[in-house]
From TrEMBL:
UniProt xrefs under InterPro entries: B30.2/SPRY, B30.2/SPRY_sf, ConA-like_dom_sf, FBXO45-Fsn/SPSB_families, SPRY_dom, SPRY_SPSB3
GN (gene name): Dgri\GH14773
Biological classification of the source: Eukaryota, Metazoa, Ecdysozoa, Arthropoda, Hexapoda
Cross-referenced Pfam families: SPRY
GO biological process per UniProt: proteasome-mediated ubiquitin-dependent protein catabolic process
Name listed for the protein in its UniProt record: GH14773
A Gene Ontology term for the protein's cellular component: SCF ubiquitin ligase complex
Organism: Drosophila grimshawi (Hawaiian fruit fly)
Domain B30.2/SPRY residue range list: 32-222
Keyword list, A-Z: Ubl conjugation pathway
Cross-referenced SUPFAM superfamilies: Concanavalin A-like lectins/glucanases
Amino acid sequence: MLPLPSIDQELRCPGFCDCHLPNCVDVANHKGHIPDLVKCRCGEDSGNGLDWQWHHSEESDAQIVGRDIIFHPTYSQGTTIVRGEQPLQLGKVHFWEMRVITVLAGTDVMFGIGTDSFNLEQFKFHFVSALGTNSQSWGYSYNGKIQHCGDQLPYGQKFSQGCLVGIYLDRTRGHLEFYLNRRSLGVAYTNIPTDPNVKIYPMVCSTAAKSVVRLINSTSVAATLQLRAFEALAKQPVKLEELRQMPGLKSIMQLYWFLAPPVRYSRCSRDPDLELGDEAVLSSSKLRLGRKHKYRESDDVNIDDDLDLYANAHKIPPRRRERSSDEEYASSIHEFCDEYFHYLL
């Protein structure tokens, strides 16, 4: 029997996109491969493919088919932990994303990392929040909490079906950071081992029967000065957009795509307006465009292009001033336009 969704399902983060996903009844009645019920491929073409995949284990109560993990295909009797097929190399920055295919419920579903000393079979017959129970693992729960050494701390919003969970691991600095729908939740831990003798693997665990997770992106790049420069530029969207216009930097921008991944906003969200934090990082041109689209998509208000303030801004003639030269006159036009658009914002 499949677990029922939590009663606070409406409080969870909406999915990454609005594509149709199977409900609990569809999953329970499906006799074939559960991931076949999902046609959505949103976000899967953003990265550079997969640098690693999941590790197959005969003793694990999980079915691994390509990028997909089906936890407890028949019924659940404990916690199953799956790790990546290869350790995450020292001296590199690693980023990977997973899509939640089914509704999450039960004791816990966690995403994170663990060392080679972490026993994957220790909770096979126990329902626990496995990742982060000791010093050899770090985990992020679907309940919005992070855990290490058995200590759980509030960290982010609860999430479930349709969400993208990203993990950013800097093995040079020893930092671990989680993303939800490609939005950073901030650095969670700064105590990840940088010892070259310690092997660290990506891990996922679940106690829920027929819960499905898909690996959609996995990238590993060397921690170079170029990477650090793009990390700083990723915090300045205007400068980053200017770099995207330079043809010679296209391949480099694609290499570091995860520093500023493309974000989508689901219409399922109860508050579709941009938050203050979002507006702070958007360029002024994108912000004006976003506001214009917001009004155009409203059911109660219908604004034509001729009445759109921003669409007709270029039709307003600049105020002429008496200047002694053409250079001074051109300067006055730029000043007037700057003041006008600043007023609009």
